[in-house]
């Protein structure tokens, strides 16, 4: 593996010449903001729970208070978090390429708070609350109530996220697939590549012979297939990559 700040010339050349760069981010992108990744051991009260068992319609139906409280805890955690240098580097990268598509599996709004203008949220957003029946966005609710209810139809409120077993927003997924298949460079950052259908996006890029770069300190199922695997935290390598690109001369 080349020195972190000695990026492969071919990678810089491809990025420099790229008309369209597509980026897919996962929970690892927010790790350096203090937001635990989805599969990191959960802390404190939540250590006893597997997130995949809480993030389901069944869990919400069986114990709405438990699931509502878990999301309330995560909303507070995310509200206290700040975007990290990796988020800001992606805002800079967007300015350097003619067309830039940012797709995220994250539900924490950190890309938007860093200044990314258009973000395709595949799994929704934890800070948006909806009626569990009508799915209308609800701005205010009675937080004293253990399981807040919709002020219009009295059904339970829930976070506007995609739970396991629920389908992703069709428009978002279609836009994500199109961007993965019609770009010049695909960056896959901070995802374990375990959750479908998001995990199939890098394969769609590779299938179209698009240069695919993985940024992840660990190895994932994508690693053997990517053109480059930068095994470093995104908060460190993305600013360096953007600087190298700005200084690149063909
Ligand atoms: C669907 C929102 C059609 C909620 C999330 C059986 C029944 C039903 C469905 C399935 C089934 N079997 C399989 C499925 C499909 C299922 C799935 O994929 N399951 C997996 C677990 C096997 N998918 C679904 O259900 C999807 N819907 O398929 O609909 C359907 C419908 C019915 C029946 C069948 C099919 C819905 C999936 C969406 C789930 N919702 N989030 C919430 O957040 O509470 S997914 C959740 O995982 C988060 O969004 C998270 O982003 C996402 C993916 O995880 P990662 O982002 O990759 O995070 P992870 O922790 O795993 O990895 C972090 C990585 O970062 C690591 O590799 C680490 O090394 C790295 N890292 C750490 N630090 C850094 C770093 N990288 C860079 N820098 C660092 N500093």
Order of helices and strands: HEHHHHHEHEEEHEHEEH
Work out the helix count.
Answer: 10
Q: CATH homologous superfamily of the domain at 1-34 and 83-123 and 168-250, by name?
A: TPP-binding domain
- Regions with pLDDT < 50 over 5+ consecutive residues? none
CATH topology of the domain at 1-34 and 83-123 and 168-250: Rossmann fold
CATH architecture of the domain at 1-34 and 83-123 and 168-250: 3-Layer(aba) Sandwich
CA-atom Rg in angstroms: 19 Å
User: Which percent range fits the helix content?
Assistant: 25-40%
- Helix-strand category: alpha/beta
> How would you describe the shape?
elongated
Query: Average pLDDT value?
Result: 94
Give the distinct bound molecules: ligand BV8
What is the count of β-strands? 8
* Biggest sheet, spatial arrangement of strands: 3-2-1-6-7-8
The share of residues in extended strands comes to 15-25%
N- and C-termini, Cα separation: 23 Å
- What is the CATH class designation of the domain at 1-34 and 83-123 and 168-250? Alpha Beta
